[in-house]
Design goal:
The complex is a heterodimer of chains A (668) and B (217). Chain A contains 25 helices and 6 strands. The N and C termini of chain A lie far apart (57 Å). The chains are: A mainly alpha (668), B mainly alpha (217).
Chain lengths: 668, 217
Amino acid sequence: MTIPLFVVGLGIGVAGVLAGAVLPARIRVASIALLVSGACLVELLAAGSVLLSGRSRTFSSTAILPLAGLRLLLDPLGALFVAIVAFVGLAATVYLVRYAFAGLTTRSATACYALFVTSLLAVPAAANTGSFMFSWELMAISSLLLLLVEHRHRQSAREAAQWYGVMTQMGAASILLGLLVLGSHAGGQTFADIKSSAAGLSPTVRSVGFMLVLFGFSSKAGAVPFHVWLPRAHPEAPSPVSALMSGAMVSLGIYGIIRVGGDLLSGGLLWWWVLVIAMGVLSALFGALHATASSDLKRLLAYSTIDNMGLVLIGVGASGALWVTGRRDVAVLAMIAALFILVVHASFKGCLFLAAGAIERSTGTRDLDQLGGLIHRMKGTASVFAIAAFSIIALPPLSGFAGEWLLFQSLLHGFTDRNTTTVIALLAGVVAFALAGGLTAVAFVKAFGIGFIGRARSPGAGAATEVAGSMVAAMVLLAGPCLVLGVVPGLAIPLLAKAANVGLPSATPGPLVRGPNLELAGYYGAIEPALLLVALVVAGCLTWGVLKLVARRATRRAEAWGCGRELQTSRMQYTATSFAEPLQRVFSDVLRPDIDVEVTHVAESRFYEKALAYSNETDDAIERSFYRPVASAFRWWGERARRIQNGSVHRYLAFGFAALVMVLVVLA
Amino acid sequence: MIGYAAALRLASGIVLLAAVAMLWRRDLRAAVPVLAVQGVALGVVAGTLALHQHDVGLGVTAFLVLIVKGFVVPLLVWRVVRRDPKIRETAPLVNVTASLVAAAVLIVLSFVVSAKITALSPSVATRLVPLGVATILVGYFLLVSRRRAVSQIVGLLLIDNGIALVTFLVTSGVPLIVELGSALDVLLVVVVLQVLVVNLRSRLGTFDLDQLKELHD
């Protein structure tokens, strides 16, 4: 039996885990980077061949995973996600070589890193419940350990790990339960068994199974209201790990929803997808709002991930709903749109997290209120950050624009559906999408404007220098698709259509016409980003030329926005907090800002102020109104339960005796 | 000469009676001969079964049980009791009268529970299983209700003897190696508890296990 290429890739990844665990410190990081990036390259090749040919590859072995048996199947849907993971993994690993600091070079951390990437690559290829949960849990646990790399320096990392650990384990338990429910009624634990007998299952069983897995997967995807771990965990992880979490791991939550709801249960019921749309709407708005209010750069990016996953969920939900009501061509379009956004999200969000890591490494902080002027000192990082940020706010001709255009088209064309519930859900989706788009623009104008333009707000930012070349190269690698898929988005469509046809079991090609541009057959709608790029370049040249002709005076270099004053200090600029303040005021019901002004007076007179301290913290409304009460209730019960443990040997013996007698009485 | 059934019933009855007697007597010195009697009765049960089934292995087991449970273990317990200045269980958590009532309830319970086991294969031996189960429960009750460390050893030994009785009656003899293993186990437990008791007295000056609660606070 020949071993397929993607299994070879996983094998290289496992070799990386072993290398991280045994090799001496001197060559450890270099060798795991070599092995892990090798694994990613092989997986890219394997996934690419599956996506191009459309033929699935399988592998099974009962020796590797006892009882359940290892069963892998790489079909176009899985291959797309393997490609996403491998691409982000490759860039993050290149970045890691020069980024790795003391905590990240230990045996456990390097082994965990290799394990994390390998398990991420394995999840989309798993084809039975055992293999899936095995790789899923490895992914969760290795990322949890990576989160703790800096726990000695930061209390917040420990706290984040607790939140993440609880949420991810609850999610995994729920997914396991859901898959077992489906499998036991289907009479087999492989995905093929579930798929073949899904039509014969009662709607109740299917709904219970799907709701259980939906909880787990949507929590992994950071969907509101199960998102609480994400804005804590993503900022606290080392940056390459954040990039992997946000670019790759979060996407696997979406993968799970598509795989189980679309592929295995072949579409399911309408209300499932309306629920998914509702979660998407909430996530998009909530994430975008919090992103505008955050002044911690990585926290802002984490909330923006929630926002983007909200958009993807709207797309997936719209696709499922339209599929159920029979609008199959638009359903395929919506699925392609969701997958497109996932792909471009992986590239720009991965890039932004790596850039945030570079900024943190170079300036010692990721607080936007302490940054500024980096565009002069970190030119490479600033350019890739700009490309990724413009892509995320969907400026043409970058990839985010193409993705959002596709999603808007699919939602708008879905309005003609006969089912009123679907139409209302789609309407809510469009409105949330539009509002979230605007808020995202505010957030990233803030991130780029405050972080990179203006003057340095702290000595650290003033002394920043560009990071190592390989780190910049990794960011450029991730920023590449932002440009390429933006200018010629049509290139990716045939591949995405193959994956979408697995997610929605059909051979419908969808209304998209083949070609480098996006054009819908049968509907009015087409964009030609390449032409747009040409127009932009021409317009730019013209403007520059006209300015050169008109403005003939000699250039005078002076302070920007000086307004005639002298001695401007960096404290006169906008800060991230002040930039977001008006919006924060408008949405104060959701953001619940906690503003505190502390005035210290001079000892002699109360009329003279010595110092003013201003703090402005936003709070997560969902966390405060739901999670914290639940957590404190659990703590209360725990304290109560502790009282029966008073240390008396007799009491413990009596517990045992009482239990024994009770069992006997029940038996008798 | 009494018959097989009568001998088996008599010996098993003595095992349970000894257990109840242990609840009745608060004098720790009395525990030693009672334990010895119980051990001998257990040996007789095994021996009777061996004679009845003409099983040499079981005969060897019976002999070992007689030696270990009838003589060695009581001797070890005696060595602990001898060092204890206060030889009476001064303040049991449950008084003697209530203990005896509880024992009666437990014996009834074990008869009810064991009915199912007996029903599986009714024979002279399996009809006596309730006595073994009752011995286990009484031993456990002793463990819970007495404060002194020595009483804990005795309670544990009662549980073990009860388990041994049930084993003999249900299986009519387990392989020798298993029996040897469990006998060794019990010896080890007794030795460990002996060490614990001695240490307890040298550190805390008492044999009262409830003093260990201080460790928690």
